[in-house]
TrEMBL record:
Organism, scientific name: Pedobacter duraquae
Keyword terms, alphabetized: Membrane, Transmembrane, Transmembrane helix
Protein name per its UniProtKB record: Uncharacterized protein
Domain of life, per lineage: Bacteria
Transmembrane segments: 12-29
Length: 157
């Protein structure tokens, strides 16, 4: 009888443990993606662009997808997308006042799509995404690197 009771307890406790563990990992990814997106939008600098930008969309999902879309005043649209599971490292080129965050992937893992361009609609792949930022301190860069790396590691699990 004791063996049966023990087996019954383990049969109930183990699935509950697995469910709680799964939700905590999903919650952590959600938290990291929201934080990264908030910080990128907070420091985004549209004034660095050569062509005037009418609208920008920048989001990071809890499944690890980073999407960056620029709508230019001349009608051209550029769309960049990659998954953080392919994240390699990042660099910052510029000063505290303004610069570009370059997010690199393991290979050519960034989808690049261009619409309404004079050269036509173009689909290609790239190894990096460059995002213009402003008012970026060293702590912000360290924070970006840490959060991107954490999310990359959590997605690999």
């Amino acid at each position: 009888m004791r063996k049966f009771t023990f087996s019954l307890k383990m049969g109930v406790i183990m699935p509950l443990f697995i469910v709680f563990t799964a939700f905590s990992a999903a919650g952590l990814l959600e938290e990291q993606s929201i934080y990264i997106q908030k910080k990128l939008l907070e420091h985004y600098d549209a004034d660095q662009e050569i062509l005037k930008i009418k609208k920008t969309e920048l989001n990071v999902t809890n499944t690890g997808f980073c999407r960056y879309k620029r709508h230019f005043e001349n009608g051209k649209v550029e769309y960049f997308s990659f998954n953080l599971i392919k994240f390699k490292d990042l660099d910052y080129v510029g000063t505290v006042k303004s610069g570009r965050l370059i997010i690199r992937t393991l290979g050519e893992d960034v989808i690049v799509q261009t619409y309404n361009d004079k050269k036509g609609d173009i689909d290609s792949m790239a190894a990096a995404v460059s995002i213009p930022l402003k008012q970026v301190e060293a702590e912000d860069l360290n924070d970006f690197a840490e959060k991107f790396q954490q999310m990359h590691q959590d997605l690999k699990k």
